[in-house]
Amino acid sequence: MFRYHDGRLLCESVDLRQIAEVAGTPCYVYSAGSIRDRYREYDFAFRDLPHTICYAAKANSTLAVLHLLAELGSGFDIVSGGELYRVLKAGGDPSKIVFSGVGKTAAEIEFAIESGIHSFNCESEAELEIIDGLGAGRKVNVAIRVNPDVNAATHPYISTGLTAHKFGIDIRRAEHIYAHAARLPNLRAVGISCHIGSQMLDTAPMVEAARKILALVERLRAAGHQLRYMDLGGGLGIAYRPEESSPQIFRFVEPLYDELLAGGLEIFVEPGRSIVGAAGMLLTRVLYRKHTPSKEFVIVDAAMNDLIRPALYGSHHEILPLEQSEEVSVVDVVGPVCETGDFFARDRELAGARTGSLLAVAAVGAYGFAQSSNYNSRPRAAEVLVDGDHWRVVRERETFEDLTRGERV
Ligand code: LLP
């Protein structure tokens, strides 16, 4: 969806330079077509299995992105009252919402029950008790999030499936917990869920985790529990480097397909990054070039407050000039924030990075804007959605007044 044509970088049919000039920089740009394609790939991979794709709103919770997915019939995986508010505002169907997370507050749980969400993914016994207490007079669907003790082999900050992690309930205790849940009057423990980590380029650990859960489902059924659905979580990675390739969605589903069909459960999935990650770019303008005895810096107008992934996870993002150029140099691309950790690339061979020129940081549709902040009192960037040959600003750039909203001296 992003490609060069006549030396200019396009998103679908729109010249990104036009967007940068009208909407200003830094600016996030998303391709609607790319998001739709990835959603449909999931839908297609599950074919005849009864399934609901619950897009993980945390990856990108911009209303226009949520709305686009809601229109396709997507469900949503949420982790806070704020995400629930956004999804409902974007037109999401509450009956297709699952609520995950280790620290749901009573207020969030009540809001979700009142909104009529599909179910809660419960992460502890204490949480089961709280939901049971708040669900009085109703039967609230819950899935126990089981921690299958499978190593996701990804960055340690986004790996969640080992017993050393705060997530889920140890698989060895699951039968005991289901027995306990069955005695709670206001719950219906009819689901089971798992999520072992994010940015997995190898689908084998996801398949292994799903098999462990399927085996557990058999044991639970033998003990008399009526399980109806299974939530496989999210976690499928995307290619951030040119030498990487994005795992195909069907490669994760296909080895499990027959087992899942035989299990007779409705399937849920919670993909975030694999739906929106590759669909976004961050446009930024080169403010200065600067030499030191050991480095050549390209200082751009976007910073770690706009995109924290390189600083937080040491993650790699390709950087492309909006106009192709033969002028290549090895540089560090850095932002204006007062931290050495404020970088987008180090010792990178980069073309076309003259003062004043425009660059695009690639594959930032997931966990890009969603993790942005006002650090250094920088207003957050604008966001643009491209659809074919149309584009529109779907979030205005913040103003200085926005920065101090709600503050008192
Ligand atoms: N379900 C649950 C319960 C999750 O915790 C997550 C992500 C997902 C689904 C969606 O995972 P995905 O399909 O997007 O991998 N900020 C980090 C990623 C944090 C992921 C947190 N949980 C990053 O920028 O890489």
Explain what you see.
The protein is an alpha/beta fold and 409 residues long. It folds into two domains: 2-30 and 277-397, Lyase, Ornithine Decarboxylase, Chain A, domain 1, CATH 2.40.37.10; 101-269, Alanine racemase (TIM Barrel, Alpha-Beta Barrel), CATH 3.20.20. The chain contains 13 helices and 21 strands. It has helices at residues 16-23, 32-45, 63-71, 81-89, 106-115, 125-134, 174-182, 204-222, 249-253, 257-263, 273-276, 309-313, 400-404, and strands at residues 2-5, 8-11, 14-15, 27-31, 51-56, 75-78, 97-99, 119-122, 140-147, 169-170, 187-193, 229-231, 266-269, 280-291, 296-300, 319-321, 328-334, 343-351, 358-361, 382-387, 390-395. The strands form three sheets. Strands 4, 14, 15, 16, 17, 18, 19, 20 and 21 form a nine-stranded mixed β-sheet that branches. The protein is elongated, with a radius of gyration of 22 Å. The structure holds ligand LLP. Ligand LLP is lined by residues 56, 59, 77, 100, 158, 195, 198-199, 233-236, 270-274, 309, 313, 366-367, 371.
Which structural class should the secondary elements be placed in? alpha/beta
Please give the CATH class of the largest domain.
Alpha Beta
Determine the oligomeric state from the structure: single chain
Beta-strand fraction estimate: 25-35%
- Most strands sheet: 9 strands, mixed
Taken together, the total number of domains comes to: 2
Q: Catalogue the unreliable spans.
A: none
Ligand kinds: ligand LLP
**Could you name the CATH topology of the largest domain?**
TIM Barrel
CATH architecture of the largest domain: Alpha-Beta Barrel
Give the averaged pLDDT, no decimals.
96
CATH superfamily of the largest domain: Alanine racemase
Radius of gyration: 22 Å
